[in-house]
Amino acid sequence: MNRFKKMIKSRVFLLFLVLIAFIYLNNSSFFIKQPSREPLLLAHRGLAQTFTMEGITNETCTAERIYEPDHPYLENTIPSMEAAFQSGADIIEFDIKPTKDGQFAVFHDWTLDCRTNMEGVTKDYTMEELKKMDIGYGYTADNGKTYPFRGKGVGLMPSLEEVLTHFPEHSFLIHIKSNDSKEGEQLAQFLSQLPAKRLSQLTVYGGDEPIAALKENLPDIRVMSKSTMKSCLLPYIGLGWTGYVPSACEHTELHIPEKIAPWLWGWSNKFLNRMDKVDARVIVVGGNGSDFSSGFDQPEDIKRLPENYTGGIWTNRIDKIAPLYQNE
């Protein structure tokens, strides 16, 4: 009887070792071909003024805490996007807010009070009225002693239509800055007028409700929300060790915080390979997920990425990151 028990235990132990070996080998990069491509560079809000992230909250006026400017560009403007693409961006992220006359303004903040010389929200004004505002009014690097962009931002707030017209062949990540399903429906109506090729160059992310409404009206567009991320990643975390990729991952976008990424099965090469097969775009962002605006903004930040990383990189300083890959 004791001999039988020992035999059972040895077989269980052997099976356990085989399982561990399978999991290890199935999630390593030993048997996959390394892609020859460079990482996909995503410029957050174009080429923007950056600021300290210490103690930041949703109520923080980030224009009041910028670093001393070393370039002349303001976020979410056509000049800043031109500079970002010229620097080497593959994709640019920008934010949209609805206007009084049924358009979308390209603007980040919930209210106009922080950056501009006006108060209220974009929906209180027509696009023509928003054009008259100074979007550089509130920027300061010295606690209000000087305002280096005051008077220089008049007329720089573009509409969504202007951006897409100005850059007819470029790729964008469009951020719906709300959880209002009506904004998703409004955006779907606008984007539905575009040809299929142009839609394939656009991705939209935002709150669960507007993204669900957008996807319902435009099933083929690439989207991302907390809900789509969970639908993809939670089952993958549970079963991805087998090589299983949930159908919810197909043709979506995943923003993976760098501190969480190593816990994903097969990170990084095997994971990227699996997501490539289902047309899921992977963008790694800075930090632990507490603030998805954190990026890889200095050359030393890139050293935190896995060797030979080929996925997407979120950056607030495309001018400093793109040259690292252009010179290779």
Automatic annotation (TrEMBL):
Q: Which residues form the GP-PDE domain?
A: 59-325
Q: Which GO terms describe its biological process?
A: lipid metabolic process
- Please name the InterPro entries in this protein's record: GP_PDE_dom, PLC-like_Pdiesterase_TIM-brl
Q: Which domain of life is it from?
A: Bacteria
Q: Name one GO molecular function term.
A: phosphoric diester hydrolase activity
Protein name, entry field: Glycerophosphodiester phosphodiesterase
Task: Tell me what organism the protein belongs to.
Answer: Domibacillus aminovorans
